[in-house]
Structure formats: structure tokens, C-alpha cells
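ugh ok so i messed up the first submission bc i forgot one of the chains. this is the corrected input, ALL of the components this time, i swear. 440 residues overall. if the numbers dont match what u have on ur side tell me asap before i send this to the collaborators (the ones from the other lab, u know who)
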Amino acid sequence: MKEIIRLIKKYQFSLFFILLEIICFSLVIRENSYQRAIFSQHATTFFGYVATLTSGVEEYFHLRATNKTLAEENTALKNKLAAYHVPGDTLPPPVHDSCTIYDYHQAKIINGTYNLTKNYLTLNLGKKDGIEKEMAVCSPEGVVGLIQDMSDHFSVVIPLINTQSIISAKIKNNNYYGPLQWDGDDYRYSYLNDIPYHVEVHAGDTIVTSNYSSIFPEGIPIGVVEEVSQANANFLKIKVRLAVDFRRLTYVYVIQNKTRSEQQQLEALNYHE
Amino acid sequence: MNNRNYYIHLLILCIIQILILNHVHIGSYFYINIYILALYVLPHKVKGIVSLLIGFLLGGLIDLSCNTLGIHAAASTFVAYLRPYLSRDMNEETEEYTQNNSKTLELGWFFQYTLLSTFLFHIILVFLEAFSFREIGTTLLRVIASTFISEIFIMLYYFICLKENKK
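and heres the new structure output, hopefully the right one now
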């Protein structure tokens, strides 16, 4: 112990210098937006590569669950396909034209947090794969979140379980819509607000994405109503059990709305105060 | 230089820097920083951690005035850290030097010391501001241009104020 103190005393000038420079550097990154942007870009890339390595090992432990969801989705898709299928006939080849509004990219979650109030997920797709800001992220079970930022090979998702994420959701059977926002408490539940008091909502009703969002396709499941209570005199507070279990999530889809920029341009020109 | 004189110089340099030089823009290559002169003429009895703190606070003050928190502070702390090493290197007769403070203000020595320090100061400052090595040529040009013009201003201040003081 004495030796350590002696050593610190001997090099106190340099140590204090290093301490001050660390303070300066963190100030530079925290307080200057340009430097912060560059730093976070490099940090995302670096930690992205680290996360790829660790998740490569981790994914083996989830193979069984992943397999199961894939099989379930496969069955559902096959059933849908069967509805179109005329016996003795083959499907016409799919036509790729501008009429398809949504493009799907398959992605893997390689890093993420679940127990904070501001949780984030990292995907293994980035700018080079055509990922852009504010694209929708869904899993076979339902909505996951939005793309917030991306580097060349990775992107960061702001999931439903982040208190800053607000998405437009509606009650499936009566089409009343409102903002869905997480309260930062339990990662399994979120809250649908601003539904008028007179609307009849029951536990077990399905909540889906609304048609007012230019990001999510309409009707993707978000969750089911768990509990209805009154927030204030006019509005209900609806507790929603999320369809996606964020703890087990591995594979997701990134959904690109190809007509979104066109819609935004038109709205920017015409929606005046 | 005694303490009271030093505080007056510190105040004048800060005022010149904040009120005038921070608002002078000669192209994007020239940053004029004269306030680091206050670190060069720091009394010799101020040593070690205290001199580092003065460098840090002085840089922080300039940062607050031009809204670049941390950048000037990092550079001027660096200069304060180098001060003992540089002045030891440039002065062979250390013994005599500590006894005779006025030697600090001798022209040739003063010029060498401030030029080197100012150059190192601007390396840290400009690279922290650019924050990448992508356009390293432009950044280096900026360092050299800023060092050149700052050194001119420092020598001007030296001839106007410090030299007279000695007499």
C-alpha cells in the first residue's frame, strides 16, 4: 500500500495530466455534436464487430426456439398459400413491379439490452444492405421497433421497450388508435394511451399497428390487452401484453416502405398550419 | 515577473482573446490564439499540479466563450504539461535559470520556446476539432497556418508589453 502511494506521488504530475485530458476528451465528445457523431459512428462499428463474435456462439443456445417459430411461421404461410392454390394448377411467377410497397430484409439481432429504461438492439445489417433511418423492424410474432441509426454494416434499433419510442397503434376490432408508449418498468408490457373513455375495450382484444403510420404496414400485431384502467376523466390507460418476447428475439425483418419518401414529400408540400 | 504583474497580463490576454481574436476570421485556416502566452509566462514558482489546473481552467474559459467545450482545455492542459520539459531542454544551465527569472523573457530563447509550444498546442487543438485523420493534409496546413499567425501575435505582445516590463 505504501509503495502504491509513493508511486502515485512520484508520478502525480503525469497522472493528473492524464486525468485532466480524459475529462477534456469526454467533454469534447459529450458537448460537441460533430465530434460526438463521429465518435459514436466508430464506436458502433467497433462494438458491432465484437457483438458479432459473441452472438455467433450465443445463437446455438437458441436454435430450438428459433426453429420452432420458423416452423410455425412456415405453416401459417403455407396455409395462406393453400387458399390461393387451385388444384392441378401452378402459381404464376411472381411479378416484381413498383406495386409492391414493402420490401423485407432478413436480419439478426447481435446485441441488445432489456433491463434499462432506454433499451437498444443492434442488427447485423447496415447502410450497405440498404438499411435507412426509421425503417420498421418486426419479428414473426409482431412489432419490434424502428431503425434509429446505422453504420456501414450495423444498425441500431430503438425497440418498443424504450421509453423514447412512441408508435401509432390501434385496437383491431374497432379501429380506435392512439400512441403506444412503454413506461420503463416490465419489458413484457407497454401502454396504449389517448383512447377515449367511451370506447369499449376488453382484456384479450388485439392491438395492431395503425394505418396512420408510414413506417409500419397496417395490421402487424403488437400485443393483446391485459388490463384497462382510467388515466384521467377523458382517456383510458390500456395495459398491453407485447406479442414479442424481447428476451428470446434473434431473427427479425427490416421492412422498407418504398413509397414513404413520396408520401412525406407530398405531405410536406400540402400540410400547412 | 511578480504575481500582480502576472495577473494583469493574464487578464489582458483573456480579454484580447475573448473579445477580439475569437471574432476575427481570416479564412478557415487561421486560428489566432494568444491566450496560451499566459501559460508561457507563468511564474516559475508555480509548478506541478497547480500549473496543470491553471492550463485546464484557462482553456475551459476560452472554450466556454467560443462554445467548443473541452477542445481548448485539452490543448492548453497539454501545453501546461510540456512546460517543465521544454524549458528544461532549452535551458542548459538550469541552476542559474531558476535563480534568474528574467531569463524567461530573453528574446531568442523566448522565441524558440513559444514557437515549439504553440505548434504542439495547435496540433492538439486542430486535430481535436477535425476529429479524424481523413483529410490530414488540410488539417496539417491548418496547424501550420494557425501556429504562424498566433506566433506573430505572441511576439507582438512580447515586444509591446513584456519587453518593457523587463526594463
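quick check: Residues 3-166 of chain B form a domain with the Arp2/3 complex 21 kDa subunit ARPC3 fold (CATH 1.10.1760). that seems consistent at least. The radius of gyration of chain B is 15 Å.
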